[in-house]
Every structure is written in structure tokens, then in C-alpha cells.
Write a structure and sequence with these properties.
With 784 residues, the protein is of the alpha+beta class. It is built from 17 helices and 34 strands. The chain folds into 3 domains: 176 residues, Aldehyde Oxidoreductase, domain 3, CATH 3.90.1170; 328 residues, Aldehyde Oxidoreductase, domain 4 (2-Layer Sandwich); 148 residues, Aldehyde oxidase/xanthine dehydrogenase, molybdopterin binding domain (Aldehyde Oxidoreductase, domain 4, 2-Layer Sandwich), CATH 3.30.365.10.
Length: 784
Amino acid sequence: MTEVERTVSAPSPVGESVKRIDAFEKATGAAPFADDLQFGPNLLYGRVVRSPHPHARILSLDVSKAAALPGVRAVVTGDNCDARFGLYLRDRYIFCRDKVRFVGDPVVGVVAISETIAEQACRLVEVEYEVLDPVVDPVRALDPGAPLLHENLADYEVADFIDPKPGTNIANHFKVRKGNVASAWDECEVIVEREFRVPIIQHVPIEPHVAVAELDRSGRYTLWSSSQSPFAQRNLIAQALELSQSDIRVIAPYVGGGFGSKAGLSAEGTAVVMAMSVPGHPVKVRLTREEEFFCAFVRQGLVAKTRVGANAQGEILAMKTEYYWDAGAYTEYGVNIARAAGYSSTGPYRIPNVEADSYCVYTNHPVGGPMRGFGMPEIHWGIEQIMDIVAEELEMDKVEFRLKNVLHGGEQNVTGMVMHPIGLSECIEKAARAINWGVDEPPSSPYARRSKGIAVSWKAPAMPPNAGSSATVRMNEDATVTVAVGGQEIGQGTFTVMAQMVAGVLGIPVDWVQISTPVDTKYSPYEWQTVASRLTWSMGNAVVAAAQDARRQILELAAEHWNEDIEHLDLRDGQVISYRSEEVLPLQNLVVYGLPLPDDQGWRGGPILGQGSFMPGYVTSLDNETGQGTRAVVHYTTGCQAVDLEVDTRTGKVKIHRIASAFDVGKAINPEQVEAQMQGGVVQGASTALFEQLIRHNGVPQNASFTDYRIATSVDIPDEIIPIIVEVPQDDGPWGARGVGEHPMIPTAPAIANAVSAATGVRIFDLPISAEKIYLEMQKERSG
């Protein structure tokens, strides 16, 4: 069923936000955004006309009234940019050209001398749509009669490890086939089958997306962007505009919260296309809070259908899983999330017979992108609950069941990869011990029921096999060091860790090391992206290599100067020392000016500049039909969380007393920061577990504000968070380190669900575990 609708853009909550900002400026006489001053009087402002429909064909556009409004400098449409872009599957235009595929899809951009005028002009744009039936469920999207969102899928450019299915809504299908699942069921004492659902949620960074773009008179673009991945943004813009990467410069200052939402390309692309129309003028585009909820990336929804069987001894024998990912209208990251879910579909368990199908499915929902955990919180929601149910059916202790079945170093995982040494069993034991597992503790009131739950997890950096990092280490005259990297500081403390690594290699105090900011693709060394919890490991390896290169140059210079063997020299406390002759040279000056030759016959040495790069060349491809291969990923970080909570039977409200969070990080370069990541992950994980969901009705968002979209606040956090660091070194990590930024969010929701079930007898299969759901399920139990 279709209908033709002619739309004159009407006032909206987004427009009201802009008007409130304008009123603030008039009342105070000052702009609330001080960075406008950076760009001078030539700064212009961009606003976007967005689709009000989840699915429609664009029949006509009339922008003449908008263009004629005083103060408007340009109006742009899909005709200004006709190339598709995408990280793994090029399926998207910056401005829509033929169809709109979600509420918020960019249709027209307006550039004006103020945001208010730009918003007024947006209301004058006339768009005629043919409204189409939306696809709002990832399972029903695969029905034979479902509307197709991307009729030209066969024509899209795609990475060789992504498998779209033209003629369907499947953007990627990843398969695992290991052992013989069909025959294994006969050997099982217990078989459990369940369906789990995870809703779409928002990252809700406190700082919304903001970008300023400028096309200079020489034809080169500069983009100032709150970005986790400036080099990826540069590449995606080059794709969309069919330009050389050398013609695009991305400058990325500190990021005010990302969690994955500021990776890739979203609002930034519209700013660049608008800047094309007004050369010499920077154009600022800022998402309002309402737009942030559905016009930026969201975390994908998921429907998981899982079946697990175990024998009477408690050994898991078989697992069959189907994942249907609600990828949204486009799949910049979604296709790789589906892939990662497939090769991680068993969780960190030793299971000989596995069948898994992970489908990335187009729907008319907001664009699914990376969020902390990259698909792992979503799949572990089901994995860790069904493992609890299997243990219950076997009448086994949940901790003992997991200890019996989790992977150890040297064993093959679901893709046939031999696991590196891991400390998962130690994590389980320490987390359980921290909350007094097995000991009944009294609730806080006669109306409360108290119990405990546990969940384990694993996650690998989900990235292409050739994702690289690079760094430079430049010595200054006073022996301080300037380090240049392309990875981004988003609050996780990566710049501190990089400084520690350089200081450790060069034997200098850490406060002698400065990280060069902001990240600037014109001057900073290349870094793939600040995602996947990979910087401590990948960028860390590059930084260590650069520092070692600088160290080598310094020691070679001193060895030549003293006529000594380099093996006898070291760097300590800002000096070169000789263990043989006990000579000492301070690093000051020599690292830039060198050292004099005897009898003033010249100089040797010169400015010390260390360079380093790293790329894991040992990741192999996986078989398209079986998902088997030698090494699917670089490594896995594993861990466990144990929860002690109570439920108020009068309201269903959950009160978390304590959560123990134990993770094997390889080596904690900065233990305090590792503990902070565990604490933050627990809070964010609890928020998504208990409260968060982006509600839609036929594809239209219903709660795009902090009034209606609930996130955890200080009153909701656990009484106690117990971080536990386990260290089993990673063979290819700097000092044995692995990343741990995302991982503490992964097992939180299922651990809470398991504890709620143990306390009440009620099991929630669809997130969030809201008080209302718990209360209603308890009422059903009471009524029989």
C-alpha cells in the first residue's frame, strides 16, 4: 500500500530546540558555543530537512522558496553528491537521491547566516513523497513478500568478507558449521531452546555530534569533527565525493563522549556537502538532542533464537543459533557486527558441535552502528541466560557449570582457532568469591527477595585483518618527548597509557612525555579507528616500536661516542648510562644537537625521531560456508561478572547491592584506569539492562528526549562495584596487554537477569529488565 504525500516541512521538536538556542543568544548577548569564535565572521550554519517517513520514494523537490529567503546562502540536495559510501558495504548517499529509508534520513541541506534562518528555510522546502510500507521487524523482513529496501543491492561495492544477498533485505549472512549438530542432540540429557530480544538503544553522549567543514579556494576540504575515527571519516568522505584522501583534512579535538556513536560518518558528511556550495566559508552542523537520538548511529536491535544441549555430566555438546540483526536503513558497521556475532556465537565455551547463522537485516529504523561491545552485549544477553537455564535443568551450580565448560588456552574455539592463554576460570572464581557466591544473605525488607547471578563473556577486536597503527616519537632539546598518534582520546585514558609506554622505553619520567593534539590527518600518523578496544594493544605496539626506534638511535650515538658496545648501555632517569665504564650522559641537548667529535673535528648524531607501525598480519580468512579458519581474530579478552541484588516484590524494582567485575587484561599498564573502565562498564551495562530502549511505532521514534528515554543516574548505580584485574599476558601485546574498554559492559545485563530469575523465579527474555516487566511476570506467576 502506498500513498502520495506532499510535505512542506513543518515546525518540529528539532526546530523548537533551535529557537530556544536563538532566544538564549538574544537574552544573554553571547553565543553559547564559544568555538564559533574560532572560525570568524565567515562562519555559516547548516540545517537539514529530514524525512518524516520511515520508507518513501522521493517524487519531487522544490527548494526555490528556501533559497529565496534572506540570509540563505545555499541549498543542497542529493544532486550535489551522487556517490555512495560505506566502510564495508557502500549502500548510502550523504543526501537521499531516490528513496528515504528511515525517519531522519537527510533530504535537503540549507546553509544560512544563522541556525534560526537555516531552520526557517528548511520549513519552506517542499518534498513530494510516495509513502511505502515500512519494514520494522528483522525476522519478518526476510519474508518473501517483504518490501525491499535496497533494490540495487547487487550493484553496491562490498568487502570480500561480507556476504550480502541481492533480492532480499539481507546485507550480510555469516555462517558457522562445526561438527555435527543434528546427531549431537541424541546424546543430550538436557536440551533448552529460547528466543531473546534486544531493543534498539542510543549511545546518548553528553556532547552531541558537531562538525564544521570548509572548502578552501584551492579545492581542499577541512573538517573539524568530534570524531573517534578521523582517518576513516577522511576515507569515507573521499568515497562519497570521489576525491583523493590528500584533498581532505580532518581535525579531531577531544571527544565529549562517543561509545561508538562518533565512529564512521554521519552528520559530518552533510557539513562537507554543504561546504561545497559556499567555498571559503566554514559551515557548522550540530545535531540537536532530539536528532541525536535517531539521526546518529543507534545500537542495533537483535532477535536471537538459540538451542543448547548438554549431557548428564554437564558437558555442553551442541549449540544452534540464529541471529537477526535490526541493522536499520544502512549498514556502515552493521554487517561487521553480524560477522563478529557469528564467529563469537558460542560465547567463551568449548562446544564441539555448532551451527550458527547471523543475518544483518535492513529495516526502516535508524542506522545501526558500533556501540560499546560491538554486538557482544546483545548476543551474551541470550547466551548467558540459556547457559543458566541448562545448569538449572541439570541441577548444577551455575559457577561449576561454567568452570566445567569454558575455554582454556590451547583449546579450539568455535571457528577452529587455537585459543591463546586466558585467565577466564580465574575470573569466574574471583568474581564469585567477591560476592560470597553460595551464601544466602538477607534482603533489606520483608517485601524484597535477594539472590545472586553470574555471567561470563568474551570479545575480540572486530576489525579487518589489515587494520594498522603508526606513531612517531620526537625528542626535544630538553629531553622531553612529543608523541604523535592518530588514535583518539575519548575519555578512556589512551593518551596517558601511550605516555607511560614511551616513558618506560626511554627511561624518562612520564611527565616528560606529551601527546600531540588534536589528531589531524594532515600531520598525525595513520590510525585505523578508535574502536574495538584496540588502542592499548595496536596503537600501543606502534608507539612502543617508535620509542624503541628512538632509543636505538640514542644508544648507537652514545656507543659510538664512548667507543663501547651498545649491549652495555641503558637509558635510566633521563640519562644514558654505561654499565661497563659507568659513564653517564644526560639526554638534554644530545637528542637534538648530537655529540662533538674528538678535538672539535665535527659532530655526530642529530635530531632523534623515532617511527613505528604495527599491523597484525597473522589474521586469516574464514571459510564462507563453515566459518572455520586458522585465526579468525587477533585475540579475545575474557571476563566474568557476578551480581548480588534484590527485587521489591511490591513494585518489581531492582536494587543492586554489588557487582564484581573480573577481566583478564593481559597486563594492566595503568591499573587505576583499568578499574575505572570496569566501573564505567558496569554502570552503562546496568543502564541498558534496566532502563534503555528507543521506542518506535511503525518506524517512527517515540521517546527522543531525556524526558522519555531513561538512563541510569547516580541513584541507580550499584552500592558497590568490585573491580578485579587478572593478568595472563598476551603474546603480541605491549608488555602483554590486551584491551578492556568495552568488555565490562558485556556480561552485566545477563548477570542481572540471572540474579533476578534466581530471586523471583521470573525470567525476562526481552530487554530491558524493567520494574514493570518483573512485576507483571510475578503477578502471572501468582495467578498460576
